[in-house]
Specification:
Layout lengths: L4 H15 L16 E3 L5 E4 L12 H14 L7 H5 L2 H14 L3 E5 L2 H23 L9 E5 L4 H9 L3 E5 L4 H9 L6 E6 L11 H11 L2 E5 L14 H4 L8 E5 L9 E5 L1 H10 L1 H4 L6 H16 L2 H19 L10 E7 L1 H13 L2 E2 L1 E3 L9 E6 L6 H14 L4 H11 L1
Parallel strand pairs: 2-11, 4-5, 4-6, 6-7, 7-8
Antiparallel strand pairs: 1-2, 3-9, 8-9, 10-13, 12-13
This protein binds 4'-deoxy-4'-aminopyridoxal-5'-phosphate (PMP).
4'-deoxy-4'-aminopyridoxal-5'-phosphate (PMP) binds next to helix 5.
Family: Belongs to the class-II pyridoxal-phosphate-dependent aminotransferase family.
Catalytic activity: 6-carboxyhexanoyl-[ACP] + L-alanine + H(+) = (8S)-8-amino-7-oxononanoate + holo-[ACP] + CO2
EC number: 2.3.1.47
């Protein structure tokens, strides 16, 4: 039997990528970062790759809560919330998260990716779905969704899944957003941004975005995956950081980053959240979060709220890494724990990762489709788990290997200009 055309095309693309060194293997490890990681080769290296900003999953209280829930409920709910998978623990987590994020209501999804899909597609389509299924009143005009061009893939997936008209605005450019919105007076509009951009580490210009949305009657949604637990005096995220609590009506958080767990959350007003529970596919048509994840996140959240010192350690580490990079002539965007170093090509980024690994540090290369080929980068993430010696060691190794990477010196020079 001959190979079907679809597979023949796919396999040809595979072979081309492999031939050009563009299919690097996913590295396997035997342990998770503490920040030490034991690789399958048996070598132990220090990881600067993890989004686990506070290391809360290593805390005894969190592990004990997960173990107890696992013992009581086993490791799976085997059903969606509506069809029997609605453990009381999930509602407990929702109400603690809503209180922490200072939003009226929350719903939990199985991953952060699903939370974005549920939120974006849900707010855009739930009204129309209610009309279709039950004949409820709904406006005739199609809604509009406008998102930052660097928004996470899951936001784009939610927008594509919806029936809304889709537009992008230039990265973090509130004036461009205002121009876009001017053409849609009177329409139902959702504007989406990330609070902290996951690949660039920069903060959204929330004060201006809030103003523009208010002026145009648009709803602003912030995916605060990387802001929650990290930014704001209370750690509740970027709205709090900018003094905008109560001004961002729809938010998403992941449980997989500062909380050190798994899952996602959508936070908004009660009626919006109730509509998402009924009509949103990222929530309704998938199994609910396992009990041990909910219990672990509740424990992690309580630590996060009662021990602000963990965040102080994180921020001290961020400052140490960023000022050390500045001494090397590098000035990555943003001011937080996501620290991108641009490499220009996928090959240069892969070479950097390889050379650093040889010296005992794991700094992951980010390549397409996460970013465009010409903006390939090393994405360092620093956490409260790192110590000063590890950060200084990383900086020394970066300094040692940089002359070996042709693109690097040029990029470093550009960043100092
Ligand atoms: N939003 C952003 C900005 C992210 O960076 C990510 C994950 N990297 C997600 C959503 C999805 O989160 P999760 O990994 O919990 O599915």
């Amino acid at each position: 039997m001959s190979t079907p055309t679809l597979f023949a095309d796919l396999h040809a693309a595979h072979d081309w990528l492999a031939g050009h060194g563009l299919l690097p293997p996913e590295r396997r490890s035997e342990t998770l970062p503490t920040p030490h990681v034991r690789l399958l080769s048996g070598r132990t290296v220090v990881s600067f790759c993890s989004n686990n900003y506070l290391g809360l999953n290593h805390r005894a209280e969190v592990k004990a809560a997960a173990a107890q829930a696992l013992h009581e409920h086993t490791h799976a709910t085997s059903e969606s919330r509506r069809l029997g998978g609605n453990l009381g623990l999930l509602e407990e987590l929702e109400s603690e998260l809503a209180e922490f994020k200072k939003q009226p209501s929350a719903l939990i999804t199985a991953t952060g990716l699903l939370a974005n899909i549920a939120a974006v597609h849900g707010v855009l389509d739930a009204g129309e779905l209610a009309r279709r299924w039950y004949g409820s009143p709904a406006p005739d005009a199609r809604p509009v969704v406008v998102y930052d061009e660097l928004c996470h893939r899951s936001i784009q997936m939610g927008a594509r899944q919806s029936s809304a008209e889709r537009l992008r605005f230039r990265h973090n450019d509130a004036e461009h957003l205002a121009d876009r919105l001017a053409a849609y007076k009177g329409r139902a509009i959702l504007v989406v941004t990330e609070g902290v951009f996951s690949m660039d580490g920069d903060l959204a210009d929330l004060p201006r975005l809030v103003e523009v949305c208010d002026a145009h009657g648009a709803v602003l949604m912030v995916d605060d995956a990387h802001g929650t637990g990290v930014y704001g005096a209370d750690g509740s995220g970027t709205a709090s950081h900018f003094g905008l609590v109560g001004r961002v009506p729809l938010q998403v958080a992941t449980l997989s980053k500062a909380f050190g767990g798994m899952g996602g959350a959508v936070l908004g007003d009660e009626r919006t959240i109730a509509m998402l529970r009924t009509f949103s596919s990222g929530y309704r048509f998938t199994s609910s979060l396992p009990a041990e994840q909910a219990a672990a996140t509740i424990a992690a959240l309580r630590i996060l709220r009662s021990e602000p010192g963990i965040r102080d350690t994180l921020w001290a580490n961020v400052r140490r890494l960023r000022s050390g990079l500045a001494r090397l002539g590098l000035h990555p965007p943003g001011d937080g724990p996501i620290v991108p170093i641009h490499m220009g090509t996928p090959q240069a980024a892969a070479m950097f990762e390889e050379l650093m690994l040889d010296t005992g540090y794991w700094c992951v290369a980010v390549t397409p489709p996460a970013v465009s080929p010409e903006t390939c980068r090393i994405r360092l993430t620093v956490s409260a788990m790192h110590d000063q010696e590890q950060i200084d060691g990383l900086l020394e190794r970066i300094n040692d290997i940089s002359p070996k990477i042709p693109a690097f010196a040029e990029i470093a020079n550009k960043q100092t200009e």
